Structure formats: C-alpha cells, structure tokens
Amino acid sequence: MRESLSRLPLLAAILTGTLLPLAAHAQLPDPAALAAVVQFNTMCSNCHDAECSGRMSFDSGAPAAHAHIERHLGGPASETQVAALFAMLRLVKETCRHYPVVPIRPARGTWLAEELAPWHNPQAGAYFIPLGKLAAGRQQIHLEFDRPADGQARVDTDRMEIVAEERLCRDENKTIELDASGDLEHFLHLKSGQAILLRIEFRRAGD
Ligand code: HEC
Description:
By secondary structure, the chain is an alpha+beta fold. The protein has two domains: about 70 residues, no CATH class; about 100 residues, Jelly Rolls, CATH 2.60.120. About 35% of the residues lie in helices and about 35% in strands. A hairpin with a 4-residue loop joins strand 2 and strand 3.
C-alpha cells in the first residue's frame, strides 16, 4: 500500500507531461522538431511575432496555409512540416510567448560551434538560440564569428520583449549587454549572413 502510494506523484507527472522538460535536458530534441523551431523563428516570426492578437482565425487550417508557408520557406515543404509550423504559430498566438524550447545547457562559460550548429538556418543566414535563464545582474553575451559579419543580434524574453539589440557591421566579435532578472527565459535572434558562430561566451559585466 505504502509503496503504491509513493509512486503516485511520478505517475501524475508522467500523465500531465511535467516530466517531459526534464527528459529534454538530457538529450537534444528530435532533429526534425528542432529544425522546425529554428525555421519558424528565423523565417516566420519576423512577420508573425508582433501581433499577439486574435486577428488570425486559423479556420482555413494547415492545408490552406501550405502555399503561403512554402513561399516563405523558399521551397517545397511536407505536410508534416507545414502542420508543425502551423501548430507552432497557433501556440505562439494563443499564449503570446515563444514556442517552448529547452536550451542546450545552462548559459555559463562557452558554447562552441558544433553545439550551436543545429540552431542555424543557413538558408536564412540566421540563428535562433534559446539561452534559458541568465543569472541576475548585468550580463554580457560575447559572440565570435568565423569572418566579418553583417546583420543584427537581438535578445528577447519568453514574452517576446526585446531586451538588447546590436547591429553587426563587418564585426568578427560582438558583445551584447543586458540586465537579467534571473527568472526570465531569454532567446537570441541572430542575422549574420554567411558568417558562422564559432562560439558564444557568457560573462558577468565587469569580470
Ligand atoms: C512577410 C510576412 C510574412 C512571413 C515571413 C510569413 N507570413 Fe504567414 N501570414 C502573413 C500574413 C500577412 C498573413 C495573413 C493573415 C494576417 O492578416 O495576419 C499570414 C497568414 C498565415 C497563416 C494563416 C492563418 C489563418 O488564419 O489561417 C499561417 C498558418 C501562416 N501565415 C504561417 C506562416 C509560417 C509558418 C511562416 C514561415 C514559414 C509564415 N507564415 C511567414 C505574413 C507573413
């Protein structure tokens, strides 16, 4: 009796899905799902983020949006991919938050090119990188590229509020500074053209 009772919280966690985020920490998400998240945030959200309104009906369903989505992806898309992007947009609209994604690991020290690569969309010349929670205080995010980069780096929160923005003008290195509250999820939106990220370093300002 005691034994079966002690298993109840675990069962409840499995049923309600609250264990899923824990599992996601241990391994990278499914590559197709990750690719869709990156596509969404590098090719769709620039138009669709801004209006967290009920303006879109979604009545027409995913098939009707197929041509529109292919046009913005710049090529053919499978039904599965369209359905995934459609579902993402719907959730973002309904919650007015980023589609939930778990960062590679806590934002400390250095993240290297190979772990950043899955968050790159070469076709869009852009990265979308979930940073997770940053330690409270003035924080620096130092970007290092393989060549001079033109474009833009922007950090926003889970609620899509922009907290830092920097232009890239032939920059091989760029430091973004922001005040973190310690409890908000942050996301990096980076347009760097052909330039590839070699590393991201996290530092406390003044260190
Ligand atoms: C250049 C701006 C732009 C881009 C980029 C863009 N869209 Fe749209 N999208 C629109 C506009 C405008 C509408 C019409 C609805 C509206 O008024 O918001 C629309 C409509 C839609 C709809 C139909 C919603 C409904 O009510 O049925 C879906 C789904 C959609 N977009 C998904 C995407 C996806 C996925 C991407 C990325 C591959 C994308 N869009 C990229 C501007 C854009």
